[in-house]
User: Fold these one by one.
Assistant:
Number 1:
Amino acid sequence: MAIRSELELIQEIEHLRAELLRHEREASETELQLERYAADLRETFKQERARSQELTRSYMATVRALSNAVEARDAYTGKHAERVAAYAMEIARALGVPISDAPEIEFGFLLHDIGKLAIPDAILYKPGALTDCERALMAQHPLLGAEIVREIAFLGEAAQVVRSHHERWDGSGYPDGLAGEQIPLAARVFSVADVLDALTTERPYRPASPLSIAREMIVAESGQQFDPRVVEAFKSIDDETLERLGAAAR
Amino acid sequence: MTRGVLIVDDEPFIRKLVATTLEDVAEFDLHEAADGIEALEVAHRVRPALILLDVDMPRLDGIETCRRMREDPATSGATIVMLTAVHDDRVERLAEDAGADLFLTKPFSPLALLRLVDGLAVQE
């Protein structure tokens, strides 16, 4: 009786040991399978990230090509769009607003004048003053531009810069006569950058103003042409930074 | 004819994993079986387009299950993928003789599984 029970005990132990081994094997198979899933997940994530970066690069290249097409027609302004985009991004950073986190906003800065493609050469290049009629057509360029980029989904809010970059804080701008915070923030930021570049670059009818004069003129327009908050942010950027940004895109 | 995927494995964990992987991706109905005998019954009934078959199972192993599926007109045309525990030429030869189309070695890649099912959907 005692011997049989000992045998039974040994059999029981062996059975349990086999059972344990089976469990261990299954557990390690499970672990390996999960590791395999994790490896695939990592790989998928990496590919996804690479693809998304590639997509952003090709968006950027497309936007630059469009922006170059605008500039190619206008010999006077040179790299105007790139300088303005660089100034506007810096002002947005100084303002500490979320638009500096939205890379597509830069696309809007670069493409702001795309509507000028639809303006006839005779008006765009006219050496003298424009007639009322010509001026009215010229003032259509933000709307024409908004129409051109309407279907480009990846521009997102950047499309608002194209439409609203000639609005003024006091409501006397065009094409919609928006005032104050009705004007999209990116467009309010942009208009300061646009005027900064216009003043500090040479034009056929006037020389370039020094940075200090441009600053004074912009500050004088705070609350009229420009959002006072944006002007404050602009004032906080030092001369070296602005000169560096302007030179980089010349 | 119902287009379905049948997952046959004695490990509930593997069945759950495969089902979760294919959920919402494949335009197929998913079915499960825990061993060869159950697999033959379910496969005959639902006529799946794809059968994922574990080799090592109680009651009836994957090789014999595969052979019997090929003999049943309801399942003879299905794509049968063998899930093998390790890369083993002998097992693969046996499985091929039994009528298996493809092999996935465990631990299998979920991406390989998804591509396989995707390829099948394209063929449809």
Number 2:
Amino acid sequence: MTTPTNIRSHSDEETRPPVNPDCRELFTGFFKLGISAFGGAMPLAHRILIEERAWLTHDEFVDQLGLCQFLPGSNVANLAVALGGRFCGWRGALSALAGLVITPTVIVVALSTLYARYQNDPLAHRLFNGLACAAAGLLIQMAYKLLRPIIRRPRKIALAAACCVAIASLRLPLVMTLAIMVPISIAVSGRDGSGQ
Amino acid sequence: MSGTVETLLYLAAICGKLSLLSFGGAVSVLPELQREVVINHHWLSARDFSALYALCQASPGPNVLIYALIGWRLAGLAGVLTCTIMTFAPTALLTAVALKGWNHYQHHPWRQRIQTGLAPVTVGLIAAAAVLLSRSTADSWPLAGIVALSALLAIKTRLHPLYILLGSALIGLLC
């Protein structure tokens, strides 16, 4: 489903003995992932964690990913917790999560300080406007990518449209929207998937 | 001082709640975060919110950094720490717990049903995020053009998102 497309030498990963990282390696592995991930870390996660470090096989990765996408929260952060926990218990989970999050947080805070200082400068203002437009455009692409697999299913489209209108136009609270839409969606479209 | 503590408590509650509701990744709760921060609490303008999200896109790391950034904006270092912990701790605990049951339930029919059932909701929420952010940034024709162009390039080409952000920032300078 969301399997990255650039999977190399699939079969020899299967036979390669997986490496068991310690806390320090978990930290550095997810540190590398965190600071090199721009707009979507998952394809990169495959390359760094499987192809470079061989911590787990492709199939194990897809399996873990399924859990991390199923649960709420950032998918990469969930992956860090799941893999860290699997290799080194709660210390491993904490190391991986810290490696993933700390440096990008410092970078983004530094950038926002620059933004706060120069936002009234007309030139910087226009620069940030352009940047915000691109961010909006990238969100449109993300929505489009998710919409494509269900585009020929009118009931699913109707459900997605109802959620979108409830949140974006009516500005209903999320909890209320989810409390109404999730049961309906599972009742209506949950059967679609298994019956295919 | 008590104002700061109150802000921190609100931030902790918002981050914790949204973290546990963000099915399909952090972006799906972006509209709710905007509703809380912009409409309910008037902490930021819609435009500032979009700018902060854009900064998260332009920096490395997961998109959830928007929470830390809002914490920083409202309450400095204490805000960053509060938001970071409350964004990751609840879902980390959930993941740790779920990890144990996952192998057992992975192929159960109800899990499949929930997953396929959630998909349209997630799509709707992310589309709502796209609508809201486009609406608050594209308030002139040239800016709307940049939004459309970025979306088109991202969909049609395999251009790295960083180039799209960079190019749009430069076009923004000319507008």
